[in-house]
Design a protein that fits this description.
Length: 516
């Protein structure tokens, strides 16, 4: 581990779906049985990015994730495709495939992994490995019969195609998409698989890895997961639930239950860090998004705290002088924090200290602009328990996403250079690939220099790379002609001689603004 740290610098990214600028704040005054201590707030640079889709004003998860992972703006509800692909049109997708950060990392011989609390075939993680004209094609039963010959479902792509089949660690939920209808779920025996082709992709994954003589294990509960020795396993598939994993506050912590997001993240990290060529890890606290859709601020905040624990554990595990850590979201949500002369310490999940000057009724300090929390006449929140629903302005069964720009927090190599200002989402993977010498930036780093313990100073007549320079590589994005800085930047010079390893953590961070 120590040698790997010296010889292979690791930029890692934490992509977290927190939702909005308004959503960054609430953890400061909230206390859900633990204190919020977001160390991500110590990030040295903050960037703002735009989350629209090519055909939509307010971004949707799979298209936003495609921009984040592949560096290309995409159309609403498509995944891993450029904007020439049309929703639910298989033929339009065949020549629209775009590679992702995980593909680029594998090309450089790095170990790769993904960790999520959603289904592993869900919209956001799917952008790492799948190409589908509908995010909903998670199994063959969802793919139109006329399209099944030409377009694979997302679960098959994960376990059959590159880069999915070469991902070392896959942890999350969604067993139902990998087993046939005749197979009953081990945890929920009243439910069966959803595959129509009769295939058990979990068994196929295990068999294929044995045939390839790979040290691989499949796990489905916490006891099996805890028994995995990262020193002896190079490939790990863990599907812990029929659909999405439980919210952390509802999680079964017994042996038959599920591991926490932190436990999954650290085990994945320790498996991947064995590779001297480096690694790329993606982690998503995806259930924060779902809680916001329900207008359930309690669970959204609690999931955020669970994600923060994972971020903290990663920051303790890696050397941040050699690891780029990026914390961000794929899109926003419609949560707001309001109040009139509200005193410090007022319960963040409760009502404001003042009542409305129109109808004389109290209102919650946390509000959603739309969603299931709308009632007529407006009801009063009596208890701020885990099942409480915050007030919403416009009635909807499911709250929408927000369309405002999303902040990006970064710490590590080149964070101060590349992570400031305002850009489109599609800029981010290009910046990461620059730092990590991936894809079209692969030749920038000398492998021989990276393997040397001693860094030899070199001249740098070219301008220091910055956001404007990197943005010229961003597809479907406006070129930015901001003048680059002149002179020689020591960090940039050092990175030019280093092979940087990407670690990717994606999630849904609702609150970062907390006491240091």
């Amino acid at each position: 581990m120590e040698t790997l740290g010296r010889k292979r610098n690791s930029p890692g990214t934490v992509f977290q779906q927190w939702r909005s600028h308004g959503g960054i704040t609430p953890c400061g005054p909230v206390d859900l049985g633990t204190r919020c201590r977001y160390r991500v707030r110590k990030a040295r640079r903050i960037k703002i990015w735009r989350t629209y889709n090519m055909d939509a004003q307010v971004g949707e998860s799979s298209a936003c994730a495609t921009a984040l992972m592949c560096g290309v703006k995409a159309n609403y509800e498509t995944v891993g495709l450029d904007s020439s692909a049309r929703f639910e049109n298989c033929l339009s997708s065949l020549n629209a495939h775009v590679p992702s950060l995980i593909s680029w990392a594998q090309e450089q011989g790095k170990s790769t992994g993904l960790v999520t609390t959603t289904r592993v075939t869900h919209a956001t993680p799917a952008a790492l490995y799948a190409h589908a004209s509908s995010r909903y094609w998670e199994d063959d039963g969802k793919v139109p019969p006329t399209a099944r010959t030409s377009c694979k479902d997302i679960a098959r792509q994960l376990l059959e195609d590159e880069p999915g089949r070469d991902i070392n660690v896959i942890l999350g939920g969604g067993r139902r998409h990998f087993v046939p209808k005749v197979t009953l779920d081990p945890e929920e025996p009243d439910k069966e698989g959803r595959r129509l082709d009769g295939r058990n992709l979990i068994e196929e994954w295990s068999r294929n890895h044995r045939l390839r003589n790979l040290a691989a294990e499949y796990v489905s509960n916490k006891e099996e997961f805890d028994n995995v020795d990262p020193r002896k396993v190079d490939h790990l598939l863990g599907l812990f639930s029929y659909s999405h994993m439980d919210f952390d506050v509802d999680r079964n912590t017994n042996d038959t239950g599920d591991p926490s997001l932190t436990e999954m993240t650290i085990k994945a990290l320790r498996i991947l860090m064995k590779n001297p060529e480096g690694f790329f890890l993606f982690v998503e606290g995806g259930r924060i998004d779902h809680a916001h859709h329900y207008n359930n601020a309690y669970r959204a905040l609690d999931e955020t705290l669970a994600l923060e624990e994972a971020v903290k554990a990663v920051m303790d595990e890696v050397d941040l002088t050699e690891t780029l850590l990026v914390v961000t979201a794929d899109h926003s949500h419609v949560l707001t924090l309001g109040g009139l002369a509200t005193h410090r310490g007022n319960p963040i999940l409760g009502s404001d200290s003042k009542v409305s000057d129109v109808d004389g009724k109290p209102y919650t300090t946390l509000l959603y602009s739309n969603g299931p929390g709308h009632t007529e006449p407006r009801s009063v929140l009596r208890e701020a328990g885990k099942d409480s629903i915050q007030t919403a302005g416009v009635p909807r069964a499911w709250a929408t996403h927000g369309g405002e720009d999303v902040p990006v927090f970064a710490i590590g190599p080149l964070a101060m250079t590349l992570f400031s200002g305002s850009v489109d989402q599609s800029y981010i993977p290009h910046a990461i690939s620059y730092v990590a010498c991936l894809a079209h930036h692969a030749s920038r780093c000398s492998r021989e220099s990276a393997m040397n313990d001693t860094i030899t100073p070199i001249s740098c007549p070219s301008a220091e790379p910055n956001s404007a320079a990197i943005s010229s590589d961003v597809m479907n994005d406006q070129a930015r002609n901001t003048p680059t800085k002149s002179g020689c930047n020591p960090l940039s010079t050092w990175v030019n001689q280093s092979a940087i390893i990407p670690l990717l953590i994606f999630g849904l961070l609702l609150d970062i603004l907390v006491k240091s």
